[in-house]
Design brief:
The protein is of the alpha/beta class. The chain has 4 helices and 4 strands. The protein has a single domain, classed as Rhodanese-like domain (Oxidized Rhodanese, domain 1). Strand 3, helix 3 and strand 4 form a beta-alpha-beta unit. The N and C termini lie close together (about 10 Å). About 30% of the residues are buried.
């Protein structure tokens, strides 16, 4: 199944480590990139450092009908991706 992993941390945080194949769209940019995000393969899994920022992104995109979920910490998502 196809899915997209979006990391909503800052570019500097993302540069310090991220899930292979994930896309970096900082939280403050998501509302200006709605159409781009909606066009990505769904479900979309949002991640960040702790799950707080990705939770905000998930709540917003679920409210506009996007199939997405909060993956929490990028390290947790990275572990799950490595298992598959």
């Amino acid at each position: 199944m196809s899915k997209t992993i979006i990391d909503v941390r800052t570019r500097a945080e993302f540069a310090g480590g991220h899930v292979a194949g994930s896309v970096n769209i900082p939280l403050q940019e998501i509302t200006s990139r709605i159409e781009e995000i909606k066009a990505m393969a769904q479900p979309i899994i949002f991640c960040c450092a702790s799950g707080n920022r990705s939770g905000q992104a998930t709540h917003y995109f679920q409210s506009i009908g996007v199939d997405c979920q909060n993956g929490g910490s990028w390290m947790e998502v990275n572990y799950l991706v490595a298992q598959n």
